[in-house]
Records
---
Amino acid sequence: MRRGPSPFNLVSLTVGFAFLYLPILLLVVWSFNASKLVTVWGGFSTKWYGALFQNEQLMAAAWVTLRVGLISATLATILGTLAAVALTRHGRFRGRTLFSGMSYAPLVMPEVIMGLSLLLLFVALKIDRGFLTVTLAHTTLTMAYVAVVVQSRLATFDTALEEAAQDLGCTPTRAFWQVTLPNIFPAILAGWMLAFTLSLDDLVIASFTSGPGATTLPMRIYSQVRLGVSPEINAVCTLLIGIVAVGVICWSIGSKWRARALPAT
């Protein structure tokens, strides 16, 4: 009996991974190109990283994106967790189907439709487009993803732990804060990271809901790429890849430490 993947599967996986990661590798390599031409290698240099930090437009867009991501991910985590608790712990209440559909609608709604509808809403409410509107839009988009992640953890959570805490004198609220919340915290943190990444990556909805002074980094990169790829764009993309890679590595190390600590407790 053959063990391991077949040659066909190995070739297919190699081609697939090369198609996915080779462009990213090339982008990182060309970010250290001394030449201004992105197709001509002029030697190794880090000057474009220095030029990046002197580019006020890119740095301002990066700062806006970072603030929008942090605030919208936090709001989406709070709302998504509350929605997941309501759907998991409160059974079949009146309006549950409608509430569930509205909570998960952003998962299947095309982003262009969602962005246009939010734009019409802000115009109807006479809210000027800017930092507030793009933050609210990203919160609306990402809270559904947080709700899915947290709800999947709550569905497998042993409620006997809560019941034991209440038998020992805890109120339902205190049992939730001291028993349930610590156990589902990894899922909440994973939902926050997912929401932050989605906000960082969004271009379509931000294009509809942002205004003057609230241009996000994907919008700025897209507007500059239309005129040609510059080495500074490669540098900022490489930094983003590095930040995400560091986050994933830290998360993996933390998960391993947690897994090793669980048997001891």
Note: The chain has a mean pLDDT of 85.
---
Amino acid sequence: MNKKPLGYGALFLAIALLPFLGVYPIFAMKVMCYALFACAFNLLIGFTGLLSFGHAAFLGAAAYGAGHAMKVWGFPPLVGIAFGTLMAAVAGLVFGLLAIRRSGIYFSMITLALAQMLFFYFLQAPFTGGEDGLQSVPRGSLLGINLESDSALYYLVLAIFVFGFWLIYRTVHSPFGQVLTSIRENEARATSLGYDAARFKLMAFVLSAALAGLAGATKTLVLGFATLTDAIWTTSGLVILMTLVGGMGTMVGPIVGALVIIALENKIGDLGQWLANLTGIQWFTGLGESVSLVTGLIFIVCVLAFRRGLVGEAGALWERLRKTENAR
């Protein structure tokens, strides 16, 4: 019996219970949005072998698209999210058609260049609000349920997150996903077997962009705004960091990575104050202003000591222990 679906079910049940355990719903919803973003990115790099330096463009495109649709055009929440996701998919198709026939660093740099072009468009376009961003996006209601309530919105975001994760899981474990893995391992051999590698990579790129957009549109619904931070290149770096820290090429790794990074961004100030009170060293009180320094150190440690990420290393350790036990 495959135990993985049961494990995923237990994980989602635990997430559903978080508000009852005292976890702030907005924080948990933000983690789920970025976890979905990281899972979408992992579909591209972890299972297809394509490193995009511009994935924040899809998060930003969907965030602005959904925010504008819900605030200005009065779209219902789910329609607004679907519209934002469609915008990201279209952007992904355009990016993919231009970049997918290049490989390695050339592919990565083209995605970065295109993302920067989109960023400067968002900076100057009148509907985005420029440097102030698109503010006060209404949550609206769904089937008569007022989504202004954090509790009601929490379970909608959880449903979207589970749907996105399920779609990635089914994709990875389908014949299409197996072709993507074969392209990652040996593209020339996959091509010699008759697969159109460029077409499969383009499909994976568009799917990844759409799922990143689903995360961005949902984030706008949760936080009520979309800003340039959603589309800037540092956000593309952040999702790479989340994936590497959690475990590239694993299903749960990006979720763990997103949790670690978002928790650091939001809680490192409290941790620094706690360390200062514990040790009497006032330097720790400045940790809250040094998030980039801390995440950079974590990145270095992961590259040097945990190349498979937290989940990847834990899985490898479990496998070694299991083999040792069977050998006795």
Note: The chain has 13 helices and two strands.
---
Amino acid sequence: MIKKIGSFIIVVILLAAAIIVSAMTGSIKVGAMELIQGLLSGTNDQVEVIKDLRFPRIIVSMLTGAALAVSGVLLQAVMKNPLADAGVIGISSGAGLVSLLVVTIFPGLFFWMPLFSFIGGAFACYLVYALSWKSGLSPLRLILVGIAINATFTGLGQSFNYRGSYAVTSVNQAISSIFTMKTWQDVNIIAIYGIIGLLLSLLLSSWCNMLSLQDKTAKNLGLRVTRARLLISVVAVLLASVATAIGGLIAFVGLLVPHIARILVGSDHKVLIPFSALGGALLILTADTLGRTVLAPTEIPASIIMTVIGGPFLIFMLRKSDRVHGN
């Protein structure tokens, strides 16, 4: 218990520190006291610029990380696969591709991107289930099918991206992960859908715990397994889709954060889900802050930083999975 409470306190402190550092650093630099006084008084022009341009970016990156991390927790619970991640098995790329296609053909539907992202993510999730099912679900086959679907959707999305039309450029956020020029409207969208998804995931935490048991045991405990898997999958797709629609394609968040979280706070989803949300917010905010400050004025997208970190971690997990499943 002490380890869990201590882990929560440390992550909250680190997240608060990351918010302050991210707000203070960049093309406009202010001190901590100047930032606080400016926010309270509303008379400091530099702080007003930070409030309009940098704070939406900070909030969007945090909510994107939280949504992707919790989506990974839910997918790993429902698929019983420690490698499941929306960015790895194609749900995020499916969400980005469908929203890109629809908005390219019908630019007037731009503000419905979260809905189209959800449809694309749900379609990709269905493909992963359908194509990996062969007398049951093999964890390794499921992740390999997911990687193939992700590669296909990513390739198709990049093909459209390089067409260079205005419509494609205007929806570039669906296939990139640069948080530049995020607005308070973006904050409103991801806050509404993201917070709804996070609250629903907390309500489903007891079902996630029961799904860790054998299906027969879960049924004997009164859980309707198929209905539980469907509802949890819907919430996971919702979180991954809205994160993709507003924050762009970022892989490995749902892989890295839940595994580290399990080491720190255990596998009880009532604790794991909120801790993963905080950890995901901290990870993406840190990646975005490093990406825009290390080589300033050039920016490194958070997705590239996550790929550099997440690629070796996925290889490590695959090798560990081989040992577990004997394939």
Note: The longest helix spans residues 45-79.
---
Amino acid sequence: MSQYAASDYYTAEKTPAGKKRIRHQTRETWMGYLFVGPMLLGLGVFTVLPILATIFLSLTDWNFVSGIDKIKLIGLDNFVQLFKDPIFLQSMKNNFILLAVIPVTMIIALLLAIVIDKHVYMKGFFKVVYFMPYISSIVAVAVVYQVLFQPSFGPVNQFLMSIGIDSPPKWLADTKFALVSVMMIQVWVSIGFYLIIYLAGLQNISKDLYEAADIDGATGWRKLISITVPMLSPTSFFLLVTGIIGTFRIFDLISVLTSGGPANSTSVLVYYLYESAFINLKTGYASAMGIILLLVTLIITLLQWAAQKRWVNY
């Protein structure tokens, strides 16, 4: 029966109508390739090739100003050296500490989004107010916070001394408080983006669920835990993934605010990579750092993707 059906199929393809259908499908296939071609070309040139070049350079002792003929293959020496480098280990540790910014930002943004969505007039005004830091120049933000956290004359320490704290922290100049200060600024900058995404997620939750909960006599807390948080889990997953990737890419705030100091207490992987490649001219060493950064980000993202099946409701 199947051979008979296949024979009928090939016979039909030889008819004028069949040939026309094949030509139409072939044209559609080529049109598809034509539309995705520019994207694939850009992906290959600007993403795949640089990754391959970085993998190769990570196995070399080279700097980009000496010329290609000076490339010297040294195998895995750069990777071995990295894990003996205290600044690299400190930068890696700081990156993982900075991950704490994400849940803090998510919780604050979710609470603000719920309040603004249900209990506040002029919602558009508050959206703009909270979103403004996110779209502001990070250089301007850093300069403002340098003034605010100035140890002797900054408004923050002036206020703390006025309420009786004689020895307030030196914030960005103090190795114990510099990273905490950066984290506080990062929360303030990111909160607007998280808020807007959560507000969009809240609009998609069916009102019927809340009406049914009201009929059952559910409290506000019960509705938050049993309806709002589970229904926003895809939004939270999106913010978690993009937040972690963004944390490992943080550079501009560190560069302008602290330059990795004091005593490398705020150095992160991308900033140390930049310093190694473009200031110390250790291109091979920086490339090895880039490969490790790629692997760490990839592993964390894959772990999140595997874990999301347990808590994300689609």
Note: The longest strand covers residues 60-61.
